[in-house]
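dumping this here so i dont lose it
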């Protein structure tokens, strides 16, 4: 959270359970822009961050707000991923 300049005050918090422990999670509104996927406008979603993962170089948690909008396929060997928006998330021309 420190690397991103996020200060855990006055934001919505929830305890989040993970494998082996519970962590205080702070939620911030984040605008996500995906430039290489046609028909997707920038959108705002709540993203949860926890300071307990700062030492790992990560902090974002969860699926709600992104993975419920896109079908995602990870190719570990090629180190790539593909996004396909669910139809209800596409901009209608």
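and the seq i came up w/
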């Amino acid at each position: 959270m420190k690397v991103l300049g996020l200060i855990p005050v006055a934001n919505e918090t929830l305890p989040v359970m993970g494998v082996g422990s519970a962590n205080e999670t702070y939620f911030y509104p984040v605008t996500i822009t995906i430039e290489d996927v046609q028909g997707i406008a920038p959108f705002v979603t709540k993203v949860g961050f926890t300071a307990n993962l700062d030492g790992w170089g990560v902090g974002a948690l969860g699926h709600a707000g992104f993975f419920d909008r896109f079908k995602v396929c990870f190719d570990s060997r090629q180190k790539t991923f593909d996004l396909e928006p669910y139809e209800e998330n596409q901009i209608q021309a």
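The beta strands are 12-17, 22-32, 43-49, 60-61, 70-75, 80-85.
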